[in-house]
Amino acid sequence: xxxxxxxxxxxxxxxxxxxxxxxxxxxxxxxxxxxxxxxxxxxxxxxxxxxxxxxxxxxxxxxxxxxxxxxxxxxxxxxxxxxxxxxxxxxxxxxxxxxxxxxxxxxxxxxxxxxxxxxxxxxxxxxxxxxxxxxxxxxxxxxxxxxxxxxxxxxxxxxxxxxxxxxxxxxxxxxxxxxxxxxxxxxxxxxxxxxxxxxxxxxxxxxxxxxxxxxxxxxxxxxxxxxxxxxxxxxxxxxxxxxxxxxxxxxxxxxxxxxxxxxxxxxxxxxxxxxxxxxxxxxxxxxxxxxxxxxxxxxxxxxxxxxxxxxxxxxxxxxxxxxxxxxxxxxxxxxxxxxxxxxxxxxxxxxxxxxxxxxxxxxxxxxxxxxxxxxxxxxxxxxxxxxxxxxxxxxxxxxxxxxxxxxxxxxxxxxxxxxxxxxxxxxxxxxxxxxxxxxxxxxxxxxxxxxxxxxxxxxxxxxxxxxxxxxxxxxxxxxxxxxxxxxxxxxxxxxxxxxxxxxxxxxxxxxxxxxxxxxxxxxxxxxxxxxxxxxxxxxxxxxxxxxxxxxxxxxxxxxxxxxxxxxxxxxxxxxxxxxxxxxxxxxxxx
Length: 590
Ligand code: ASP
What we know:
Blueprint: E1 24-37, E2 40-47, E3 50-56, H1 63-70, E4 77-86, E5 101-112, H2 132-137, H3 139-142, H4 146-168, E6 172-173, E7 191-193, E8 201-203, H5 209-217, E9 222-230, E10 242-251, H6 255-272, E11 283-285, H7 286-293, E12 306-308, H8 310-313, H9 319-322, E13 330-336, H10 344-356, E14 363-368, E15 371-373, H11 382-387, E16 395-401, H12 403-421, E17 431-435, E18 440-442, E19 449-451, H13 466-469, E20 478-483, E21 486-493, H14 498-506, H15 512-526, E22 533-539, H16 540-548, H17 578-583
Parallel strand pairs: 3-5, 6-9, 11-17
Antiparallel strand pairs: 1-2, 1-4, 2-3, 4-5, 7-8, 9-10, 10-22, 12-13, 13-16, 14-15, 14-16, 17-20, 18-19, 20-21, 21-22
Helix pairs in contact: 4-6, 4-16, 10-12, 14-15
This protein binds aspartic acid.
């Protein structure tokens, strides 16, 4: 018996190698595939470690075993006992880790007969996956697929590695409540009705934010938690209503300390997945990120940055730019190396994508030798283009307007250009920190300032005075970790002065009395001796998705929700019966 041996088996299927040849083994697993070949039956037997070929034949399997093997249906659970046999060189299967051996079965027990699977677990080469709705509905089959098993095993290893790394840095793992009070992170709360207190509700935490700050006030110094967070948001492809964060907080730290802790965790996670990452990560202020990439999560694998061409272009008198050149408008663009290779169709599609985002649309110029073409080509000379950094074989893509319009347009155009021209990434893993976020952003619908992070984030010390008069100009001690254009997580240095915290709460539209009612416990704690502190939360599902190379968050979560926040497998949410509702003092209006 190996240490993995149990009452039913001696080894896992996927771990057998040439070194096991001539050993007698007992394996348990699922029938992945069965092939009958002239009196021989071959079964690929599968468990979480992988597949192994089990052969049933007249030379080594008793007739009843051979007969039963011939009737085995897909996904039946069996235990087989037999001898590991080295395959002759020409019969080895290099596509299988166990491909140097097979097991000659002498015994077969059928432990878990299986109905015909509703979706295939074993797929032929090139066969498409079942539709995702079916995969979610029949999750007990979908999770058996080797790809899904690999994703969840990677997830496990990453979690262990995060725990280990943070423990080594003397962070304490402390759990915080799930039934709690609203912790605003910008989403709606999930509410849980109280049976004992009619008309009162718990909220599920949008994050452990307030509790981790309380732990700092209590002197625990360094905290972490693998925290489940709940946010009732309109869902997008990469969001889940409940998700996992690697959440951390530390006291007597400044921003650089926190970035250092998070880098240590990220480097360890990437290493666990086989990638060597250098530290420290480059830093970029929010203003620089918006200026050069038009987004706060720039993909820095590619050396293509937005430039301000207002001064060079203004004298050219191009009608396209002139018509919208108002106060605060700028001409900004991308000098695309090799952009001459963009076809007319490419450019039209880029312009269409730009239009969808509103604004003036996209103007373009291409340069081939002395020949200059494009929607505004006739206004440009080789010399002017040269000054914009547009050389032979390159293209200039530009737009005009206020930054709030041109930034998203040029971000989109930049991403599309990268996708179409597929320039070789200068680096495969481009991490960066975006620092000095604004404390507030204008709400796209109303223009009113809303928190860029959450209301516990400290304003930049130089900007505290702007809190009331010019909130949109107030920077924050808020930072994001960005990787290849994905936001991996956010954090900040926190407010510790209760007076500043009250001023910030006023921006939530709370009167002093309301702030006291909702957050009095935090204000009291801050007034009771609060150390400087700050922290971060890593979006663990997204990190796992990226490291697994998975297409969706749902591929790295065992039982995820759909984009409509439904659990299709177990069937949630579901109506509650009248008795339950009565106990909870709830009446449902339809
Ligand atoms: N609570 C924050 C979040 O969930 C993270 C942090 O500020 O530490 O994004």
